[in-house]
Amino acid sequence: MSECPCCSGLTYAECCEPVIRGEKNPETPEQVMRARYSAYARTEIDYLEESTHVDGREDFDKASSRTWSENADWEKLEIVRTQGGGPDDNQGFVEFIARFVQKDIKQKHHEVAEFKKEGDRWFFLDGQPVTPEPYKRETPKVGRNHPCPCGSGKKYKKCCAKG
């Protein structure tokens, strides 16, 4: 029995396989997200299409999804946070990072996925990539002709900038 690709700590048979096979209805957007990641890892493209909300299915490209699935080595799914998606909700969000290797290059796909509930079933609706926050300097920038911050009395370019 193999470990589930979604990194839940359960076996595939206990976790995502029943969802992907249609034997179990996922109760939360996170469960759909985990099953979708496992579907990519196991090239279960039909589940990817079926778990996409009807409003987003026209944008689903089965061929490119299959190519991505088959040409990546899926390493890890990290759920960063969830919002909504409870029993009384009709909308939920899952921020996740999918780590994979493609063409010998380690990559990550960081996204906030939106899910919509229709009847008693959750569907993936859309996703927005998460971009890194720009770097913010904590201290003022030292110019090359400013006094060196080490306190030597020399100009920065003649002291610590020479390094």
In short:
The chain is an alpha+beta fold and 163 residues long. Helix content is 20%, strand content 29%. Strand 3 and strand 4 (121-129) form a beta hairpin.
Provide the CATH topology of the largest domain.
Nuclear Transport Factor 2, Chain: A
CATH architecture of the largest domain, by name, is Roll
Structural class by secondary-structure content: alpha+beta
- Strand order across the largest sheet: 1-2-3-4
Distance between the termini: 56 Å
Instruction: Quickly count the helices.
Output: 4
Helix content: 10-25%
Return the average pLDDT rounded to an integer. Answer: 94
**Which percent band covers the strand fraction?**
25-35%
Query: Ranges with pLDDT <50 over ≥5 residues?
Result: none
What is the approximate shape? elongated
Provide the succession of SSEs.
HHHHEEEE
What features would you describe in this structure?
This protein is an alpha+beta fold and 163 residues long. The protein folds into 2 domains: 17-132, Nuclear Transport Factor 2, Chain: A (Roll); 136-163, no CATH class. 20% of the residues lie in helices and 29% in strands. It contains 4 helices and 4 strands. The chain has a 4-stranded antiparallel sheet with strand order 1-2-3-4. β1 and β2 form a beta hairpin. The longest helix has 13 residues, at 29-41. The termini are far apart.
Name the descriptors:
single chain; 163 residues; alpha+beta; Nuclear Transport Factor 2, Chain: A; 2 domains; 4-stranded antiparallel sheet; 4 helices
